[in-house]
Amino acid sequence: MSETISNKDQRESFKDEAVEIREQGNLDESLEFFEKVEKWDKENSNFRGQMDVLGHMRITYSRMGDKEKDVNKKKEFKTKALVSVKKAIAIGKREILPEGPLAIQSVHLASALLDLAKFEEEDKRKGILEEALKELSKAMEGFPGSVAHKAWPSNLKAQLEYKLGNVADAIETLHYGEKCLFEGYEDEIKNDDQAELKLNVWLSGLHLTFATICVEEGRPILAKHYATSVLNIDDSKKMLGERKKEAQKILDSLK
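User: That's the sequence. What structure does it adopt?
Assistant: Structure tokens below.
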């Protein structure tokens, strides 16, 4: 692939490859691709595309933070993730873009808030989590795309509910996410050339959250089931590298 983007078709190819590279775990390279896409979007007044890629950059920064062992560096990446999504929302509001793309950015915002809440004292942390859950619940009311797409924010909603102590709500939300994948499967396959990757990413995300909750709630047999399901996903193109590593880490903790 060329080093610069000259048209919209190349822009789409760069973005798609950046997503695949990120899911393989090559975060630095993925970020470079996303930055080139965002630069092209800005130069060509492609505001909706710019919002979208800033959301992808938020995910990338968040993953980079997850890999850091140094607390200050971890927080630095998580803060960059928040700045990225706030920039996206500001663009959407300035350009009066449709509610659907803004709802997606609200999910990114809720995720960034969840990440940064971990660095706060308990009393302040609860307020941040409640704000994130409120933002997310509102976004899910008008969430765009296929029904299957709702599995992504459902996973985040379950994490927020669990962190706030609502275990039963979290489990119910995860089951709802699985239901969304089932009901929206055909539409997703029909309308998206990256459908298999997205379905695998969303399903593995739900199962990793299931596994994490089961570990913390003392259900190791169930935790093993959900973590193993992620490891067993057919991934010949190695696009679920980071998620499989997370699943293996959960299994190792059960030994």
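The CA atoms of residues 78 and 116 lie 6 Å apart.
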